[in-house]
């Protein structure tokens, strides 16, 4: 089919806009990476934008060799793995149960969950509740409050309701109980949705700095993003030295002449961002539509 001149012009404009959008997203990342890979004292002179002028890996050696960041990394990895698994488990169980239209008080429960999604009690009541539950200054403050997401539950429930009823009805006729139906039918067909929700949940856990900053005072329990937030808020090395122990430990490694606070900041940003970016290609295949095609045949 021959395209008209208008279609060709529209396609060129769309491609140009997409390239511009990609450049606007990639440029800040490349700029930070080039500073992180450049000698700090040289990068402080300016002019380092897309490629390091004096290449070095010492900034990453300082960051990755710091015991405080290593421990914060372990906290973040443990939080992301445990939080994602528990979050998906709670989401699939609640969504599967509420997908049964014959469930007693189903509408009341759904209305209550919807209210919690639309309205919040506020930060102070949440802080008081976490204190009453003895979750403050604990690793589980990262896991338990975020174990259930109303939005994820509604998305998962709608996905389960979209599965043909003939599948579950045939399993019920064969004597399968709800738990067995969940294991042999719902879970295998829900892999794309679970992968998507799992990715979103993992990214949220990995990037969250708020809980570590406000609910945890023990520096041995802060995640790497909270440490990064504390580091980015510092104005100079002397400010870092006078703040707290974990920043002080990093700053002591930054007193070398060719390392600056800015180069350490950029290296820390890269170290905290790259792992979660590497997960996307492995989960992308689960986003393919049409899993249910051919599952029910007339």
Automatic annotation (TrEMBL):
Key words, A-Z: Cell membrane, Membrane, Transmembrane, Transmembrane helix, Transport
Keyword Membrane: yes
Subcellular location: Cell membrane
Domain of life where this protein originates: Bacteria
Occurrences of domain ABC transmembrane type-1 (ranges): 73-268
InterPro entries hit by this protein: MetI-like, MetI-like_sf
Keyword set includes Membrane: yes
SUPFAM superfamilies according to UniProt: MetI-like (SSF161098)
Membrane topology: Multi-pass membrane protein
Transmembrane region(s): 12-30, 72-96, 108-128, 140-160, 181-206, 262-283
Family of this protein: Belongs to the binding-protein-dependent transport system permease family.
Protein name as annotated: Carbohydrate ABC transporter permease
Native species: Paenibacillus sepulcri
């Amino acid at each position: 089919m021959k395209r008209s001149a208008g279609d060709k012009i529209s396609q060129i404009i769309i491609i140009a806009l997409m390239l511009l959008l990609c450049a606007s997203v990639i440029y800040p990342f490349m700029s930070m990476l080039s500073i992180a890979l450049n000698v700090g004292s040289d990068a402080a002179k300016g002019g380092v934008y897309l490629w390091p002028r004096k290449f070095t890996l010492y900034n990453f050696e300082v960051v990755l060799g710091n015991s405080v960041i290593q421990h914060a990394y372990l906290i973040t990895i443990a939080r992301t793995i445990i939080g994602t698994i528990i979050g998906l488990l709670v989401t699939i169980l609640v969504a599967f149960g509420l997908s049964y239209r014959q469930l007693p008080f189903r509408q009341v429960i759904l209305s209550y969950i919807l209210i919690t999604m639309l309205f919040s009690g506020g930060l102070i009541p949440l802080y008081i509740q976490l204190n009453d539950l003895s979750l403050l200054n604990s690793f589980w403050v990262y896991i338990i409050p975020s174990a259930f997401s109303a939005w994820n539950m509604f998305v998962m429930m709608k996905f389960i309701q979209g599965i043909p009823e003939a599948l579950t009805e045939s399993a019920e006729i064969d004597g399968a109980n709800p738990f067995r139906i969940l294991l042999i039918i719902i879970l295998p067909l829900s892999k794309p949705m679970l992968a998507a929700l799992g990715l979103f949940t993992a990214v949220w856990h990995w990037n969250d700095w708020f809980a570590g900053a406000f609910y945890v005072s023990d520096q041995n329990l802060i995640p790497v993003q909270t440490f990064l937030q504390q580091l980015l808020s510092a104005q100079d090395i002397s400010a870092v030295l006078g703040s707290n122990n974990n920043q002080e430990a990093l700053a002591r490694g930054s007193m070398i002449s060719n390392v600056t606070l800015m180069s350490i900041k950029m290296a820390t940003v890269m170290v905290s961002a790259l792992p979660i970016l590497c997960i996307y290609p492995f989960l992308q295949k689960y986003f393919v539509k049409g899993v249910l095609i051919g599952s029910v045949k007339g």
